[in-house]
Write a structure and sequence with these properties.
The protein is of the alpha+beta class. Helix content is 33%, strand content 22%. It has one domain (8-136): Aspartate Aminotransferase, domain 1 (Alpha-Beta Complex). A hairpin with a 3-residue loop joins strand 2 (44-47) and strand 3. The longest helix is centred in the N-terminal third of the chain and has 18 residues, at 23-40.
Length: 143
């Protein structure tokens, strides 16, 4: 049986950020921590080994695969910073057109640094993702 690898755990978010080797990326992680915390109202939690997530929801696909995931989050990876939103939300593409320098992956958006993006659009993407996921998976979101 499949066991989900990326689960919420009790690791310290601040200790995780302090271990980010690149000082500029570490500073951006603190900026993102503040933006996501303020915008979501959820406390930051470590998911898996490298994702800082906010809130959670339980999903179940038509295939029967199910699990838990953060509503939104980010990860200050070595190459780029990954931003996790509801990328399946069709309204997100419109916001991304004014977001700034980024690339879009299957399940996330990649940026080099916070200075490359429009922070107001980031806040809108976070808020929109929360609404989309809470409507798609009602009564299963938690703080």
């Amino acid at each position: 049986m499949y066991e989900q690898k990326t689960r919420e755990n009790d690791s310290s978010v601040l200790e995780f950020i302090e271990k980010v080797e690149n000082p500029k990326k570490r500073d951006d992680a603190y900026k993102l921590l503040e933006i996501f915390t303020e915008t979501t109202g959820y406390p930051a939690k470590i998911w898996g080994t490298s994702i800082i997530g906010f809130g959670s929801y339980h999903y179940k696909y038509a295939s029967g695969h199910e699990g838990d995931a953060p509503l939104v989050g980010f990860s200050p990876r070595k190459a780029k910073i990954s931003l996790y939103f509801a990328t399946c939300d069709p309204d997100g593409d419109e916001l991304l057109s004014d977001f700034g320098k980024h690339t879009k992956g299957k399940g996330c958006v990649y940026i080099n640094k916070v200075a490359d993006i429009n922070v107001d659009i980031l806040k809108e993407l976070i808020t929109q993702s929360l609404k989309f996921l809470q409507q798609t998976y009602p009564n299963k979101s938690e703080k």
